[in-house]
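Complex record, three chains
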Amino acid sequence: MIGDSITSALYQKALDGTWQRQKATSNNIANSETPGYKAIKVNFEDSLKAEINKLQTTANAGSTSFLDKMESIQSIDNSNINVYQGATSSRLDQNNVDMESENIDMTKSVLQYNYLVRGVSDSYSRLKYAINGGK
Amino acid sequence: MFIVPMTSIIGGAGIGTVGGNAVNAAAAVDTGVAGDFKNILQDTINNVEQTEAVTKVDAYNLSIGNMDDMHTMMINTAKADVALQTMVQLRNKVLESYQAVMNTGL
Amino acid sequence: MSFLSSFNISGSGMTAQKYRLDIVAQNIANAQVTRTEDGEPYRRKMTVLSSVNTGTFLDALKTATGVVQKAGVQVEAVIEDESALVPVYDPTHPDANAEGYVMYPNVNTAQEMTDAMGASRAYEANVTAFNATKSIVLKALEIGR
């Protein structure tokens, strides 16, 4: 499909993951004083990297030409978003939300989302520019 | 008089990296026969239909308030945009070339 | 409904913290009440917070388009602090017991102020999270512009 390139699939996955991370951070901050609550963390980068690395065989090791293959898109779609909670806490109320870490995650999510939006938006406007013959 | 289907002079690798026509690209690379222009046009029209269907579902979900991730909806809109513009430009180019052919003196 | 229900997560946090502040205000206001409607001295109230729907929230996070129905925090109950009341020797008081002691509420002003500060900081953190979510959602509008 036009517009369904590797770049677009990567951006879509990253945007999904970052949005989920922001939701998890919101929930952690809302529950920062709830006894027994364990912080929820979201990780999509590791799965994405693992899926892409599977395409990197010994034949094309060291190059990034596998990023041009169409089957990379399927790999990217296959990568999943890992959601996990810690199990231990050192606080008396068994809550392990670390406010500093949540604030840092929140700032990073906002910035990452902004850059990703800019990236995806620019890739589509480049495509449109090419389609319209430079007008 | 009828239009003879164009045989692609670009070949497999060119169309393939645009990312829009894996089928034709694969066929061209494998068999050495260039993709059919008619197939490309048909693929473009199918793209438009698919992307429009997705935006219709998005519009429904948005209207009943069943939407949580906004970026997917915006990306689907951008894809529909690109698909439609591709089809329109393709149509324009076909018409231009038809006019050019008709205008050649015999 | 579930449109941008992710805002409700931070909203629930703000509501819960504001409730905690209300309880703190009530405790401080009633710190000297030796006789409530049921004849007993006022006992310090505490809120019990619990998280909402964490299980379904986790599942919704795993699927990228899972819609979050209801998540966040809620005030599950308001319970009374069962620690000992403060006896003060004052035989002339109308509420004095047989030995001349008046039982005052177990409200410790310093602890209440600490709770109030904690609740107000948590409220601010939820406001910051809300604003971050809002900026993300507004940014998504710019895709394709």
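Note: DSSP finds three helices and four strands in chain C.
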